[in-house]
Amino acid sequence: MYVKICGLRTAETVDAAVEAGADAVGFVFAPGSPRLIEAQAACALAARVPGTVETVGVFRGQPVEEVLATASSARLTTIQLHGDEEDEDFERLRAEGFRTIRALSWDVYLARALTDPLDRLLIDAPLPGNGTRFDTDLLLDRPPRGFWLLAGGLDPANVAGAVRSAAPKGVDVSSGVESSKGVKSADLIRRFVAAARNA
Ligand SMILES: O=C(O)c1ccccc1N[C@@H]1O[C@H](COP(=O)(O)O)[C@@H](O)[C@H]1O
């Protein structure tokens, strides 16, 4: 089970995620997010992370050149896009040496024929970063193939059940490991990673 902890902004919570055994830590660059971080600050946090852990930049609806500039200056390994980007955009990011995650809300995933098998898919509720869950039974008509991550309203108490019913290859969390909006809790991060791993 691949575990990503998203929306980190402090050294303490990055260290907690890494020590708990997370596979990826995420930094949010989407305008308007309560977890927004500057590239320079993300770069300092990413430098604390061992090479075995992915450092993911999260973007929504930003031009690809801006995404590349930010991810490069923060020295990230991976780019997660929540917009309506096309296959060519993901190809461009990979050609520049980044790994990619294509984030789609469940309804867009069901409606859209995806042609690019090189993306890892993240299936989420329609309003990302809001702690909202969706009914994963909705995916039964078209179960995702390959490597995909489940997100949307996960927390330490519900992640094991979500993993058992939807059988994703990984999970991603933001709101569910916060003590208040935008403020991560090291304790909740540790509990989330343990619960996901033991599912
Ligand atoms: O976290 C945000 O503020 C955010 C903003 C814009 C796009 C994505 C964002 N976060 C992503 O949202 C999901 C899960 O969120 P939650 O656990 O339901 O709060 C996850 O993929 C984050 O990377």
UniProtKB/TrEMBL annotation:
One Pfam family name from the record? PRAI
Q: Where is the N-(5'phosphoribosyl) anthranilate isomerase (PRAI) domain positioned along the sequence?
A: 3-194
- Top-rank taxon of the source lineage equals Bacteria
Name the UniProt record assigns to this protein: N-(5'-phosphoribosyl)anthranilate isomerase
Entries under InterPro entries matching the protein: Aldolase_TIM, PRAI_dom, RibuloseP-bd_barrel, TrpF_fam
The reaction(s) this protein catalyses: N-(5-phospho-beta-D-ribosyl)anthranilate = 1-(2-carboxyphenylamino)-1-deoxy-D-ribulose 5-phosphate
Which processes are annotated in GO (biological process)? L-tryptophan biosynthetic process
Q: What is its EC number?
A: 5.3.1.24
Q: Which organism is it from?
A: Streptomyces nodosus
Stated family: Belongs to the TrpF family.
Q: Which UniProt keywords apply?
A: Amino-acid biosynthesis, Aromatic amino acid biosynthesis, Isomerase, Tryptophan biosynthesis
Q: Name one GO molecular function term.
A: phosphoribosylanthranilate isomerase activity
What HAMAP family does its record include? Answer: PRAI
Read off the SUPFAM superfamilies from this record.
Ribulose-phoshate binding barrel (SSF51366)
According to UniProt, this protein's pathway is:
Amino-acid biosynthesis; L-tryptophan biosynthesis; L-tryptophan from chorismate: step 3/5
